[in-house]
Amino acid sequence: MNVKMPRADIGVFGGSGFYSMASKAEEYSIHTPYGSPSERISIGRIGNYDVAFLPRHGRDHSIPPHKINYRANLWAMKELGVSRIISPCACGSLQQNIKPGDFVITDQFVDRTSARSDTFFEGPKVVHISAAEPYCPELRKLAIRVAKDAGITTHETGTMVVIQGPRFSSKAESKWFTKMGWETINMTQYPEVVLAQELGMCIVNIALVTDYDAGLVGNVPEVTTQEVMETFKKNGENLKKIIEPLILRIPAMREMCKCADKPAEGSFS
After folding, report:
1. 211 catalytically annotated
2. Among this protein's residues, is 118 annotated catalytic?
3. What is the pLDDT of residue 220?
4. Is the sign of the CA dihedral 143, 145, 147, 152 positive or negative?
5. CATH number of the domain that 86 lies in?
6. Is residue 2 situated within a structural domain?
7. The whole model's pTM is what?
8. Proportion of the chain above pLDDT 70, given as a percent
């Protein structure tokens, strides 16, 4: 018996805290050629859109960043019909002017991961996508506007260094990243962003700054675990304030970006 595939227009990589925004949310198990996604996907209605929510670390945050099945997560979203991805994440700050509690709408990344499966094209078909502008310019503009309208201190650009994890950087590594002028540091944005590109999906990253990275010790007040958790909770509440308005502002048709022109492999139902 053929089971009808559910449909969704927009995908959000976020946990159960976001599900309450969607009406009549139901969970689905999606199987992919790359294995299972991190968790069952919850699909609900926000405005005129069916929205798919997937916690990239699993519902209990049990999957470390280097073990996330990024290909399965993105393929599952594409199978559902998703064309836009909202990809929030926590991050550390590498610069003094980017403070805990701030949001950064990332426009560039630097990959410092290793041995992660980061392409759908492993032969015999070989594709070289351009990662010059990895994040969707249309979604970035909308995210900036919505965050600022909500009164959140928001940096309109920022380069994120993506490290392998699960360990954090040494002071020497962190000082190097800061000296290079990069703004934030995280463990999950790569290969998530380039896999979305390969599938022709728009993607936007909203980086939630929780603390200063190790290389800034001595130049900024030392951050305690309690402060990090309080900032993370505050950022999470602020993120909830902007996810729904952002979704409601996304136009039905993609007109201002070329994200759909990226190569996509396979057929999607």
Report:
1. yes
2. no
3. 83
4. positive
5. 3.40.50.1580
6. no
7. 0.92
8. 92
